[in-house]
Structures are given as C-alpha cells and as structure tokens.
Amino acid sequence: MPETIHAEVVTIGDEILFGQITDTNTQWISTELTTIGIRTVRKSSVGDQADAILQILQEAHQRVNLIILTGGLGPTKDDITKHTLCRYFNTELVMNPDALEMVTGFFAKRGRAMTEMNRLQAALPANCVYIPNHWGTAPGMWFEFDGRVYVSLPGVPFEMKSLMTNLILPKLKAHFRTPVILHKMIRTVGIGESFLAERIEPWEDALPQHIRLAYLPSFGQVKLRLTATGSTAEPLQQELEVQVARVLPLIEQYVFGFDSDELETVVGRLLNQKKLTLAIAESCTGGYVSAQITKVPGASAYFWGSIVSYANDIKVKSLGLDPGILAEHGAVSEPTIRSMAEGVRRALGTSVGIATSGIAGPDGGTPDKPVGTIWIACATDRCTVTRLLKLGQYRDQNIQLTTNYVLNLLREELLTLN
Amino acid sequence: MPETIHAEVVTIGDEILFGQITDTNTQWISTELTTIGIRTVRKSSVGDQADAILQILQEAHQRVNLIILTGGLGPTKDDITKHTLCRYFNTELVMNPDALEMVTGFFAKRGRAMTEMNRLQAALPANCVYIPNHWGTAPGMWFEFDGRVYVSLPGVPFEMKSLMTNLILPKLKAHFRTPVILHKMIRTVGIGESFLAERIEPWEDALPQHIRLAYLPSFGQVKLRLTATGSTAEPLQQELEVQVARVLPLIEQYVFGFDSDELETVVGRLLNQKKLTLAIAESCTGGYVSAQITKVPGASAYFWGSIVSYANDIKVKSLGLDPGILAEHGAVSEPTIRSMAEGVRRALGTSVGIATSGIAGPDGGTPDKPVGTIWIACATDRCTVTRLLKLGQYRDQNIQLTTNYVLNLLREELLTLN
C-alpha cells in the first residue's frame, strides 16, 4: 500500500481569527484532498502576523508532507503571506513576468484601471512555481522544499476553488503516490444520535479496523459517515456497499438519502420521476423553503412558484383563504395551514402544495401559542396532511428546522404517490 | 495595562477534518472572546484521535493562557475527548452526581428513555469543575492546570453557545484581568477592495500603532474593520470614532452601515422609519431575497409578502404581467422586470415593490442572454428603477450577488423617499 500523505491546511488572516468571517475554505479543501487519497490531519488559522505564520510553517513541516495555505495574498497592506514565505524559504520577491501579464490582462479585459498595488501582486518568492489564477488577481504558488510541498492560494473562496480544481489537485495527484480513501454517507432524518447509535451498535462493533464510522448531527438530521482506507478502489468500494446493505434494514425508515443528497435534491428527484409539480405557501419561513428548493439546478422543471404571505391580507388575497377561518382560528392553526397548502396548490395549479405557518420568534408568542409553535402541511390530490411542530425560541433555528420538517413531509407524501 | 490573554480554540472531530461539516463554532467563540478582551491567536481542528489531541494540548500549553476545546463529547463511540483529557491531566473518569442528575432530568423532562450511553456522559475527569449544560446532555468542563485554563464544550453549536454565553464567559471575565479590545466595522457595497484601499491610503498610513485596519471582502461588499487595543474603554472608543469620522468623507457613497448592520437590517430600519411596506417578486433568486428580509426579527412590520414566480404562468396570473410583454421580450428583459416590480407592488398593495429575473445557471443561457444575465428593479410611487447585471456562471454566487444588488437598489431608492 502506498504511504499515506498527510496534509495540514492553514488559513491566514485576522478576519478569521477575530471571527468576522466564517472559514469555509478549509472544509472544502479537506474534502477535495480526501478524494485524491490525501488525509488532512490538522487545520489551523493564524492572524496576519509574520511570527505566527513562521511558527506554524515550522511545526507543520515536522508533521506532514503537504501544507496548503490560503489567504493573505490580497493587494492591501494587511496581507503579508508572500513576504513571510520569503523569510521562511530564505529568498526574496522578484517580479514574475507571467504573473504580471496575467494581472494586466485581468484588468484590461474588464476595462478597469490597474493600481500599483495590483501590479505588485505579480512579485513572487524567487523559488516558487507560479500557478496562474484565471479567476482573480492574486497568484497561486507551489513550493517544493525538503521533501514537502507547500501551496499558497488566495483566500477568496471562488478563486481558491477554481485554482484547486483546475490546477492544484491534478498537480498533487501527479506528485504523490497515495492510498485509496473512500467515504460513504448515509443520511437520516427524524431520529436522535444516541437512539441511532443504540439501533446499530452490533453492526458498528463488528466493523473491520480499516472502516471507521462517524455520527454527524445537524438540524433534525444525523449523517452516518463510513470511511474506508485501502490500496485498491474496487474491492474497497464493494466492502463499503456490503456494510451499507447490512446496516440499512436497521434504520430504513429514517434514511432519506446517501452521500451528497440533501432533502431538496431528493424531493426534486422524486418530483421529476413522478412528473409532479410543486407550489409553496410560506409564512413563518419567509421564503427559506423556496430558496432551498431553487438552490437545486433544474428546479424550474418541477417548481412553479411560491407565495410568501407575511400579512394575513395576502393569505386571503393570494391564497384564497377564507377570512372566516382566519378570524376564528388565527394564522397559526390547523384549519389555516390546511387551507394554505390547498390554496397555493389550487392558485398555482400544481400537483402538490406545501405550507408553513407559525411563530418563529423572538416576539409574537402567547401563552396558548408560544414561540416555536409551527404548523406545516402537504396537499396532494389524494389528501392533505398537517403536522404541529413544537420547536424552540430561536428564530434562525425555527426557520431551518421547519424547512427540514416540511421538506421531509413532502418527501414522505411523494413516496405514497404514483 | 493588564497583560493580554491569548487563547487557542481547538475543534475536535473527524467530521470537521474530513470536511463533512462547516465549523462555525470557532468563529463564534473568537468573536465572543474578543468582547471580553481575550485575543485568539490560533484556531485548530484535529480528528478523533487521542495522539493528535494530546499533541495540540501540549503545544497550546506552551503558547497561551486559555485553551477552549469543542466537540468529541457526544455519547457515541467516536467521541474521545474526555478520555484524552484524563490522559493529559493524568487522572481518571469518575461519575459526577450533579452531571448525572442533570442528564437524568433532561430525559425525564422530555419523556424520553435514557440509554446507558447517555448515563456515561455524566462520568467526568476527576480534576474538572463541572459546568452544567441545561441545553443538552454533554457536560461542560473547566480545568485549571499549571497557570492555564482549559475549557471543554460540546460541539453542537446551540449547546456550546448557550454554555459560553451563560456560564463560561462570565467565569473567564472573573478569572482573567484583560485589556480592552474594541472593534469598529465600516460596511461598504459597490466598490472593490483595491479601489477602496487607494482611496483611503493616506488615512490608513496615518493610523496609530494600536489601531489596526483589515479589509474583509465578500460578495459585492467590503468591510473595513478597525481594531483598537488599550487599557480603558472610553478614550479608546473616542479614538475609534475620530478615525471613523476622518475616513467617512473619502468613501461616503459606498457605506451602507456599521458593525453588525446587514443590507437587510438597514433596509428594514429605513422601511420602519419611513412607515413604508415592501413586496417582492422573485424569479431567479427563488425566495432567497425574501428569506434574507425575513431573517430580521420584526420584519412583519414592513414586509407583506412575496411571489416567487418560477413558471411564466405564475408571472401572468399572480403578478398581472401582460402576456404580450412576456411573448415579445421574454422573462429576462427590461419590460418584464419593470412589470414584475410594479405588478407585485400593485397585487400586494404595498408602498414599494422589488423584483429579480434572470438566468442563474448552470443551464438556460443563450448567446444573447448568457448565464449570469439578470435584471433587477425597484418600483415606488415616484418611479421604477431597473438595472441589468452581468454576473458569472455559478448559480449560488449569482443568487447571492443578485440579492445583494437588489437590496442595495432598494436601500438607495428608500433614501430618496420621504
């Protein structure tokens, strides 16, 4: 079996340390490294300070074969990665003609003036292999030093991802001889982590050493991730499939998908397969359910539209709700949610209608209907199913959980239709 | 001036290393630490492996006064933080009666059965101060060792945040005597990072040593963050205000807000102040604009509703669009976007209507109207303003950028109204 390549991913920038932005780069990078059999063993963030960067480079050098840095390559004064790399490699910045041509072309193509700061972005450490950035002005850099590979990339996620996908990953694959690491994700909804664990304990205990299991809980869902390490892909893939086939019967009713499936992609697939169309009436989720459905490319094949009715007036006018029902039962009630799902299905002329209405918080609760009281519904030509959720007091969580539950209700109903 | 307290934040879990989930905990923790004058100097993630955890604890011990760990405290077999802390502190797990009572009560209150795995969650390292978790089953732990403080918290964001806010931050404040660190964020839209930097260069160069500037670019916005360090809050606050007053005239037309302002909170404030109401017609953004508007607590005071019209049919039926306009110009055109904004304003009876329509991708582009061709509009009783955006080829980015631009168009129009 080839030697396992270990990597560290380091983000540079005060904005991440001080918590002003969420770092999504390291997550993405480690996922991509996994697909080519490189295992990330540590991720770190340090600020825009030379000493902290030098220290982490020295430490990582002791631990791993590959170090990927992102950030600190912008044109502004707080970006110091390049200067620090020069100190680390004991070299200096020289103007790179290819990089200069690239950055000049970038501005010319966009008809924008180039500043002196932008020009200086083409000055690179003398020992680096220049990796052209076709998607922005900060260059990519590749260094080989003392048997390790160092890669430095811009922190802007779109530029970093484009550079990684198109240039760095192929180069890493050619450089290292790596073992095979395969993942299989089983996605469940509607059961807690420890209850899931009890159900599958005998299976989990019997897993072979080279297949590891992890529980990844999030908003009403728990993902089970199997990771297998070996030397050849095909038998390893078969082993994973055997394990999945063994565990599925224990948890079948909770499994909604595998790998990169999301509830919105699974319901999209079902709607497409069954040639059905969808309309949505949203109150407390305020457009979030629709935004999830339309995140999926090609959603226009089955999604016709939504009515977000925050004001009661709109519920009456656009959804055809009976004002009497609203007056008698209120906006957060079983009769209202039923009418909303049926009304939006009728108004937009689709096969299925789903609806949400409730008190997302932080205000608007009453002793009868506290914050977190939320109704959801799904109407088809067969019947209308309604459900009452009793959630917590946090607006963001209530919106996300409600979206999760109404998409799962939709999924369950779609499975019953031809 | 009191000694600066340096902290490291460490997340534990294969799910973060392998990239299956985004770590938002460390961002949140470092922001909160900053508010009590503790500076995060490094953030790291390691997997569920004892050696990696031990190594990072030893390293962090050399560098900082405070180490905060999250994750690896769940009931399942892949969670090993507690055992590893025992090895590190050379102690053992003992059943903690307070923790046991807490976890027993947690299940009793919810009418759910408690598993043996859950019971074992109450076994804690003998040297720890137990920090009760009222929001879940994994305990919080506080250790003092060799002049450092170690805090171990569950990885579930909601539980971690509740523990930090209510128990850990007050305890840290009492334990350490910390300097004052103040931040001021200036939020701009519609100007690139390097152009902004050129405009403010003389001001930036004249900043005193104890006030640092960072540029934080994201989706059509650039945030300028000033960080000031000192010993007393009031004069430091005044210094920051003086600096903001100096830089504002240079960039005034691009500034939409300060600190935690977002475009959606700023437009919400304007709508409230001017007693105006809002309706939204969304096509290519699919509900995302509405979801941003309704993220803001109290949005129901000014937001009446949206029509998400993915099918052309819905544009005609629900927005009252002239089918002739659609037939002649298509859904992605100036006449259509104008009619959508005016139509939704009329249909829902609000003071203002905004609209989006375009080709978000990845499919649906033509030579005439490639992916990324997107129209936005804002209709008021004064006039209707339309704008053509030429964005890129990535669906997610197109949706987010369009949302950004249409909210900024709305903001600009609101500023012209009484």
From TrEMBL, chains A, B:
Residues 8-175 form the MoaB/Mog domain. It holds the Pfam family CinA_KH. SUPFAM superfamilies: CinA-like, Molybdenum cofactor biosynthesis proteins. It comes from the Bacteria. InterPro entries: CinA, CinA-like_C, CinA_C, CinA_KH, Competence-induced_CinA, MoaB/Mog-like_dom_sf, MoaB/Mog_dom. SMART domains: MoCF_biosynth. Belongs to the CinA family. This is CinA-like protein.
